[in-house]
Write a structure and sequence with these properties.
Elements: E1 3-8, H1 12-21, E2 30-36, E3 40-42, H2 47-52, H3 57-60, E4 61-63, H4 64-67, E5 73-77, E6 80-84, E7 89-92, E8 97-99, E9 102-105, E10 109-111, H5 129-149, E11 156-160, H6 164-183, E12 192-197, H7 208-219, E13 223-227, E14 231-235, E15 238-241, E16 246-248, E17 251-254, E18 258-260, H8 262-265, E19 271-272, E20 275-277, E21 290-292, E22 297-298, H9 311-330, E23 343-347, E24 353-357, E25 362-365, H10 367-383
Parallel strand pairs: 1-2, 1-9, 2-5, 9-21, 11-12, 11-17, 12-13, 20-22
Antiparallel strand pairs: 3-4, 6-7, 7-8, 10-18, 14-15, 15-16, 19-20, 23-24, 24-25
Helix pairs in contact: 1-9
Bound molecules: nicotinamide-adenine-dinucleotide.
Length: 392
């Protein structure tokens, strides 16, 4: 009888699991259903560009129908309301319930607010194409308003969190600001573009030399860094920092961290800080018929520290799960997950970037790093046969 495989989420992990499992199972051997809340596969490593308005939505949000064409994958556009791994049931927002022989959980992560009062209600986030469009429209509107009101808060843009998301976003905004200022006839120097980081430095995953390069490059384009200063409270448009200073900004984007999707903690899967624990085959440690990919899983590296939740690890996990689903359902030998780290690439706007590349972390900066970032995107798109998005 045909096996039922259900994949929750069509981010990097879910899409790669779906595409890869089809290499091992024909349509008559297994039915593959992918559930996703949006009809697109979103290249979230490029969202900062959409938020700043220098790329079109079609370039980074690829229609799933197109990606799955001819692959015999059933696509369900709905939100997962809940799932129970003990009952082997998935409840969707369209009131349907799915059952499965094997389940893949690839539901990504959510923004973490760390219980900071007023933060969630008074900030925007950058987790989806919709979020990115919202940020873009919001900044446009505030700059347009500033031209009329000269209210300094309208020209104040604050990014909370100096990890890769915050820094890449601030770099794109810095690059686009001169054009936007011109559009509304304001002096670009009136715009206060700031980034606040709790830790002593931005981009702590990179070596000091590259951190300095990033900071200098962005400061030269008008970004002001406030480091060693956690956001402690937000009240309307007033953002309070640990030293007591209050920043009034009508644009505040929070990129201060991510946490597991709460559905995972509620599903009955064994979890570690909200992310599902998995064995070397990426199988849940508590439920053998469930595989977990990407930010939804926690996978411990050689030094017993969890790998950070990145696109490249999600991609590799999804691909391995594609095979291990087959191994599980057909009683074949499993393959173990071995993460191949190709490095970390941080864009600093359109013309600058910093990166560490390969297993020996070779540092790169400037044009070579920018080109690597582009190449990494093209490589991924080519892998999923999504190069059509580059036409936009
Ligand atoms: P992150 O957790 O890596 O960074 C969040 C930053 O916010 C940290 O530096 C933290 O110190 C700071 N912060 C936390 N609380 C704060 C507070 N109260 N006030 C001010 N600052 C505060 O989150 P991220 O940047 O969204 O990245 C999430 C994951 O995605 C990471 O694993 C990252 O490597 C990955 N990522 C990778 C890329 C890339 O490879 N180019 C891009 C984006 C994200």
């Amino acid at each position: 009888m045909s096996k039922q495989i259900v994949i929750l989420g069509a981010g990097y992990g879910g899409v790669l699991a779906a595409l890869n499992v089809r290499k091992y199972f024909s349509q008559s051997e297994a039915k593959v259903t992918v559930v996703n809340q949006y009809p697109t596969h979103q290249i979230i490593t490029e969202l900062h560009r959409l938020a700043a308005g220098n790329v079109s939505e079609q370039a980074i949000a690829l229609p799933l129908e197109k990606l799955f064409k001819g692959k015999d994958i059933d696509l369900k556009i709905a939100k997962v309301e809940s799932f129970s791994v003990d009952n082997k049931e998935v409840k969707l927002s369209d009131n349907t319930t799915l059952t499965y022989d094997a389940l893949v959980v690839a539901l990504g992560s959510q923004t973490a607010y760390f219980g900071i009062p007023g933060l969630e209600e008074n900030s925007m986030v950058l987790k989806s194409a919709d979020d990115a469009n919202k940020i873009f429209n919001h900044i446009n509107e505030k700059i347009r308003k500033y031209a009329e009101t000269k209210d300094e808060a309208d020209a104040a843009i604050l990014i909370g969190g100096g990890g890769l998301t915050g820094v890449e976003l601030v770099g794109e905004i810095a690059d686009e600001m001169p054009k936007l200022a011109k559009k509304y006839g304001i002096n670009p120097e009136d715009v206060k573009l700031m980034l606040v980081e709790a830790g002593p430095k931005i981009l702590p995953v990179l070596p000091d030399e590259l951190i300095e390069r990033a900071q200098t490059s962005l400061e030269a384009r008008g970004v002001k860094f406030l480091t060693g200063l956690p956001v402690t409270k937000v009240n309307g448009n007033v953002i309070e920092l640990k030293d007591g200073q209050k920043i009034k900004a009508n644009t505040f984007v929070w990129t201060g961290g991510v946490q597991g999707n709460p559905l995972i903690g509620e599903s009955g899967l064994e979890v570690n800080r909200g992310r599902a624990t998995v064995n070397e085959y990426l199988q849940s440690t508590s439920h053998k018929d469930v595989f977990v990919a990407g930010d939804s899983a926690v996978f411990f590296g050689p030094n017993d520290r969890p790998y950070p939740p990145t696109a490249q690890i999600a991609w590799q996990m999804g691909e391995l799960i594609g095979y291990n689903l087959y191994a599980y359902l057909e009683n074949k030998a499993f393959e173990s997950f071995k993460f191949v780290n190709s490095g970390t690439l941080a864009s600093l706007g359109r013309k600058d970037a910093v990166a560490i590349i390969g297993g020996n972390s070779t540092p790169l900066k400037g044009l070579p790093a920018s080109l690597m970032k582009e190449a990494s995107n093209v490589r991924y798109l080519s892998h999923i046969k999504g190069l059509f998005s580059l036409a936009y």
